[in-house]
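Late entry, written up from scratch paper. The run itself happened at the end of the previous shift, but nothing got recorded in the book at the time, so transcribing now.
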Amino acid sequence: MEDNAVQTVKRTKRTFVGLVTSDKMDKSIVVTVTTKKMDRLYKKYVTRSKKYMTHDETNDAHVGDTVRIVECSPYSRHKCWRLAEIVERAK
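Output as recorded:
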């Protein structure tokens, strides 16, 4: 192998499980992912949540569904996640 050869490493895509909080857009949903993180000072777990704009090609997910999302190349300025599967339907 040459000294100046560039070695590429394939990175695994991140996946999250979250709750659909909005489905009002066409082919887009907003997924809220909640995680627990330990506070460094107080040594207590704090709940953090973040919203991800997600691409839903078939408009299959609705508010209240638990879904799995996967990182992907950008669909638009805000959307760089896509719907992988619906884990559980809302009741």
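The first strand starts at residue 15 and ends at 22.
(Scratch paper discarded after transcription.)
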